[in-house]
Design goal:
It is a single chain. Helices cover 36% and strands 30% of the residues. By secondary structure, it is α/β, with parallel strands linked by helices. β13 and β14 form a beta hairpin. α3 packs parallel to α4.
Length: 243
């Protein structure tokens, strides 16, 4: 687990690192043993390396010289929707802004970090990172292939073959890869919803819901079955509320 702590006060970085280690060792000992922590004294310095390094969690001070933590979070969110973000600040002034960048937690330095709240924030981060790492394993052109589930937009049947629509290209697979196989593999993942006969859509890539279809972030339109429209709409709204 790779974590970046970003604060212009070295003593705060040390306290946060110790507290983070304590919480992980107490609740997630295996994650604590794998933890890698990098400390940055400015938002500019972490932004310089963010594209080249994969982080599971960023702990950001909001008020720093130069680029503040909130602006850094906005730029990071444009690159990654999965990385965890926890804010540290001495004021509640930016609380609502923190929610706009989908922060996992917001803690006041002056009051210390509430253990239950911090543990809950870490739990959200770990759950999302675990979800982002899930893969669908197939053989393609005789070679093993692992497809990240968060890259799958939808799955259906095309020309009698299993069609997997990805973010940038598509795959068509022959037996033993059938639609029934796909539903068995993906049916337990809460992101995937059967919205039409033999069509599974990834609800994380839905941009909007129209009367008769879902419109995805790449513009593709996925039909919603008239027979199951009410149930599909309810399932989608429930997913958004629990997300």
């Amino acid at each position: 687990m790779r974590i970046a702590i970003v604060d212009d006060e070295p003593e705060v970085c040390g306290v946060v690192r110790d507290y983070l280690t304590h919480i992980l060792e107490k609740y997630w000992a295996e994650k604590a043993a794998q933890m890698e922590v990098e400390v940055f004294d400015s938002a500019e310095s972490v932004l310089e390396v963010f594209e080249q390094r994969t982080y599971d969690l960023l702990i950001l001070d909001i008020r720093m010289p130069g680029i503040g933590g909130m602006e850094a979070a906005r730029r990071i969110r444009n690159q990654s929707s999965d990385v965890g973000i926890i804010f540290l600040t001495s004021s509640e002034e930016y609380l609502m802004e923190g929610y706009r960048v989908f922060a996992d937690g917001y803690f006041l330095k002056t009051e210390g970090m509430d253990e239950e709240g911090f543990r809950a924030a870490l739990a959200r981060v770990l759950e999302r990172r675990e979800k982002a790492a899930r893969v669908l394993k197939v053989q393609y052109n005789g070679q093993p292939l692992e497809i990240l589930l968060n890259k799958i937009h939808y799955v259906d049947i095309a020309g009698g073959r299993l069609h997997i629509a990805l973010a940038k290209h598509d795959l068509c697979l022959t037996r033993p890869y059938t639609y029934d196989w796909a539903t068995e593999q993906l049916g337990h993942d809460p992101r995937f919803l059967e919205c039409y006969h033999r069509v599974l859509v990834n609800m994380d890539v839905i941009e909007r819901m129209d009367k008769e279809s879902f419109v995805l972030i790449n513009g593709a339109e996925i039909p919603i079955s008239q027979r199951r429209r009410s149930g599909v709409r309810t399932s989608y709204m429930q997913y958004l509320l629990n997300k």
